[in-house]
Amino acid sequence: RQATGTAEFDAIVIGAGFSGLYQLHLLRDRLGLSVRVLEQADGVGGTWYWNRYPGARCDSESHSYCFSFSEDLYKEWEWTERYPEQPEIMRYLNWVADKLDLKRDIGFNTRVTACRYDAVANRWQVTTEGGETLAATYLITAVGCLSTANVPKIPGLESFQGHWYHTGQWPHEGVDFSGLRVGQIGTGSTGIQAVPVIAAQAKHLTVFQRTANYSVPARNGPLSDDFKAWTKENYRTIREVMHSTPNGHPFVISDRSCWDVSAEERRTLYEAAWEKGGLQFRATFRDLLIDKEANDTAAEFLRAKIREIVKDPETAAKLADIDHPYAAKRPPIDTEYFEAYNRDNVSLVDVRSNPIERITPKGAQLRDGTEVELDIIVFATGFDAMTGPLLRLGITGRDGLPLSEAWAAGPRTYLGLQVAGFPNMFTITGPGSPSVLCNMPIAIEQHAEWIADCIAHLRAKGIARLEPAPEAVDRWVEHVNEAAHATLLPQAGHSWYLGANVPGKPRVFMPYAGGMARYRQICADVAAKGYEGFVLSD
Ligand code: NA7
């Protein structure tokens, strides 16, 4: 700490979720840098610290939703279920943080309000809500992609006499729904997890659906001792698979085309995938995400399942009225989601045809004049994804350029890792990276390792600053666009991949859809060519 009161470090990392924890470990314990992590919560966990809503569980399988950089760490932890539940992930991340002795370098309850690049000193000046000032050569944002809650501005919400909650800002003490009339807005991955759990407790649950969604059963359950032993014995193979597939999951996407088999065989394969459950459903054929007609066969199979499960034909029709290709939006997986609509205490309102016009003191007023009386409103309405968490950090780069201005027409990065005009700032899982289309820890490990290697290079060579050349950013943005348009993903016009869920947000397809394995290779090549596309200066 200097006389000015500014605490000086080599690197400042913002966020203490999976990304921030691993980045701290790499920079501090492998490179020997002085590092400070700033975290607004009072504990580690990031996304999992905040998302404590009923049914909160990861869609990646537990043996893949963890760090795999250390064989010892991987083998020492024991998961209990096929998919880890929020409290178990929190236990895991706290265990990792303690094991690697990370907490002593994390400032908790510390919200960053501004990050300013000082070109003369070549330092990032960071200010916190509590009035602290810190400075470092390297600024690394580890703020996650889905951490800025999107609460729709429905008129009258302030007049509501009941309680309302967003799933991503859930009270730590939980919410007791017993005997209460609950309204849930949103049927994305989160909403689909929450419905059956809330329905089991509430007096009545009304689900307000704007966009119907596919879902495949998760088939969650306790892990057998045999499986646990198998994951440990096969650590290397599992890691190799996760590193070689486009989505970082521990399963292989079939190299079979949907058209290689007869309609009957196709049905048998879909049926087997449905029984097996989980995200693997989309791996049934290699062309499901690139060939619309191939996708239609999966989509129709899944719609038929909804009609089969849901007894009331009118409700089934609303749930199956899905307007986008399967997996063009993030495909949810569930535990008894569609089954929940067979309960007497669950009803579905299609708010596309009959929107909520306003929230009244007593509930939700629909366009057709109906007032649905509610005691609690649950907003499962998602996030200002990818750019939201970065833009709220108050970042200004070279020549006082605010990030919000640099990205006024949508995010522009090189490799999702750096922004032109923001020297020595690195964005883990930034827009333009494949992270949200990938099993997250696999993407995070690659980003954090690449950043650590890059910083090691700069220090070894005595290079003061690194930032992308504008032409490299142009080329990457174009490549991200091409990669998206080679798939069906942009066809889901209302997805958060496009920023379409937040009114006024520029519509840019943000994630890199070219696959994690390909991306890993591109990043490695860039580094091997002396950080091609970056400007390195003294
Ligand atoms: P998502 O996937 O963005 O889903 C949000 C849901 O909320 C979706 O059904 C939206 O409908 C709906 N929504 C949003 N705003 C409104 C308004 N104003 N009125 C009615 N309905 C609305 O977020 P999740 O939290 O479920 O999942 C985020 C990620 O977490 C997920 O992808 C996984 O990676 C884990 P829409 O589709 O926009 O019409």
TrEMBL record:
InterPro entries in the cross-refs: FAD-binding_Monooxygenases, FAD/NAD-bd_sf, Flavin_mOase-like
Pfam families per the UniProt record, alphabetical: FMO-like
Keyword field contains Oxidoreductase: yes
Molecular function as annotated in GO: flavin adenine dinucleotide binding; N,N-dimethylaniline monooxygenase activity; NADP binding
Cofactor: FAD
Superkingdom: Bacteria
Keyword vocabulary terms for this entry: FAD, Flavoprotein, Monooxygenase, NADP, Oxidoreductase
Keyword Phosphoprotein carried by entry: no
Family statement drawn from the similarity comment of this UniProt entry: Belongs to the FAD-binding monooxygenase family.
Annotated protein name in UniProt: NAD(P)/FAD-dependent oxidoreductase
